[in-house]
Amino acid sequence: SENIFILGIESSCDDTAASVIHNGQILSNEVASQKIHEAYGGVVPELASRAHQQNIVPVVHQALKKAGIEKSQLAAVAFTRGPGLMGSLLVGTSFAKSLAYGLDIPLIDVNHMQAHILAHFIDEPGFKKPPFPFLALTISGGHTQIVRVDHYFEMTVIGETIDDAVGEAFDKSGKILGLGYPAGPEIDKRAKLGNPKAFKFTKPKVDGLNFSFSGLKTAILYFIQKETKSNPNFIEENLNDICASIQYTIIRILIDKLKLASKETGIRHIAIGGGVSANSGIRNALKQGESKFGWTTYIPKFEFTTDNAAMIAIVGYLKYLEGNFSKQSITATARLKL
Ligand code: KG4
Ligand code: ZN
């Protein structure tokens, strides 16, 4: 059989990442995370693109080195075309084009959201691949979608957020509580120590399979303002319970919509992806869905679930097998649809 090495490059937001895939198997998965944004409580686009500019060559170099190959062995270069921040996408796109041009090998553009879903097709011992059709719940700082996946490149968004992404719901709630950015991981940690039913936040009413999270943020803000008026130490004294209650509400919103999606489509194979799928409460709730609703759930290895280049490389490989290449005139597209 053939030895196909593909380089994947991801630069859609604040992580500069590169990965080498050999057939379906990841040989290296490098990422340079940009710490600089923490001080600002969110990603600053201008700073992100500058950091990508600085990081991209060392990260690609490291990915090739860890994979133990020379760039002359590459069969193709795959890169994130969108969606994402334009200035960030431009760095990866321009770099990938130049490298493919210089090496005279195919260039392959990748949709970042498709990649979060297709990360499930990386060959990884102990991880099963979902059979078609399956439902994918992609939850990150930028996106919240339920996607019906009929084949690798046959995907239909059947539900999505009409305002904030679920990661933003975690991060903005955390900001109200005075937690650092991103707040998701800390809320998760504290939620384990708190009572999820201590405080009740109402679930938004959104038709069909769509989500809304901006109301929750406002509800939390008013709740905290009211409570701290009578007790200035309210947050400190109840932080774990508050975190557990917020997380519980978010999980209920997600699971209720997934239940509905599964019922409407008759599909019980459910895969999750995106940074928020690291959340332990969400993972538990999904696992419980196996016995409660007859689901089979698929949760990728952690490093393939947050923004990474391995997921770009696997899509590159799948497209390579189909001979689905890009023209050199292709452009980064900030609002690329699935
Ligand atoms: O996919 P990702 O790394 O980047 C994009 O947004 O594309 O996701 C980052 C998001 C942040 O909002 C972060 O707070 C959230 O994922 N996150 C978590 C957890 N780990 C990361 N949210 C809840 N619980 C976690 N354990
Ligand atoms: Zn992402």
TrEMBL record:
Catalytic activity of the protein: L-threonylcarbamoyladenylate + adenosine(37) in tRNA = N(6)-L-threonylcarbamoyladenosine(37) in tRNA + AMP + H(+)
The keyword Acyltransferase is annotated on this UniProt entry: yes
Cofactor binding note from Swiss-Prot or TrEMBL: Binds 1 Fe(2+) ion per subunit.
Subcellular location: Cytoplasm
EC assignment: 2.3.1.234
Pfam families attached to this UniProt entry: TsaD
Domain Gcp-like per the UniProt entry, residue ranges: 25-313
Binding site for Fe cation: 112, 116, 307
Transmembrane segments: none
Entry's family note: Belongs to the KAE1 / TsaD family.
Name the UniProt record assigns to this protein: tRNA N6-adenosine threonylcarbamoyltransferase
The organism of origin for this protein: Gaetbulibacter aestuarii
Phylogenetic lineage: Bacteria, Pseudomonadati, Bacteroidota, Flavobacteriia, Flavobacteriales
